[in-house]
Amino acid sequence: MAVPKKRTGHSAQGKRRANWKASKPETTICSNCGATVLTHTVCTACGYYKGKPVSKKVAMPAVAPKPVKETKKAEEVKAVEEVKEVKEEKKPAKTTTKKAATTKAKKTTKTEKTETPAKKAKSEKSSEK
Fold first, then answer.
1. Burial, 34: exposed, middle or buried (Cβ in 10 Å; 0-12, 13-18, 19+)?
2. Do 25 and 41 contact (CB within 8 A), yes or no?
3. What is the pLDDT of residues 54-73, one digit of tens each?
4. Which residues does residue 29 pair with via DSSP β-bridges, in sequence order?
5. Cα–Cα distance measured from residue 44 to residue 63, given in angstroms and rounded to the nearest whole number
6. Do residues 45 and 63 make contact, with C-beta atoms less than 8 angstroms apart?
7. Residue 25 phi/psi, 5° resolution?
8. Cα separation of 34 and 48, whole Å?
């Protein structure tokens, strides 16, 4: 039997194993109860396979899965919207404070002061003409 002389390096081992991917199992919907089932297997919820009763679970009534999460989400969304509406009603109208007014005034004065001497001379010449 052949025995390798050297170990396989990490890179070569990784390249070889690059295509070992897990695949998602194929699923179908049960024709009797609507539950998700692996293909070619008996439904675990109702015991039917290809529309025919196969398992002893048939004695139990077939129950469709309830969309419980969807109803809860809808209720939560409505509650959140109501809370937002209440908060918006409680908020007073925004008024400018003294600080905001003074900072706006400072910004306008700074922009006026940034004129260069060359610009001032040009503006004086044009006003003289």
1. middle
2. no
3. 877 655 555 565 555 555 66
4. 36
5. 12
6. yes
7. -65, 145
8. 11
Closest CA to 47 of 28, 60, 29, 64: 60
Tokens found for residue 90? 């409680």
Q: Give the closest residue to 46 by CA, choosing from 56, 27, 38.
A: 56
Give pTM, 2 decimals: 0.32
Contact 112, 120 (CB under 8 A): no
What residue has token string 């295509």? 19
What pLDDT does 104 receive?
59
Q: CB atoms < 10 A from the CB of 58, how many?
A: 14
pLDDT of res. 83: 75
One-letter amino acid at 20 equals W
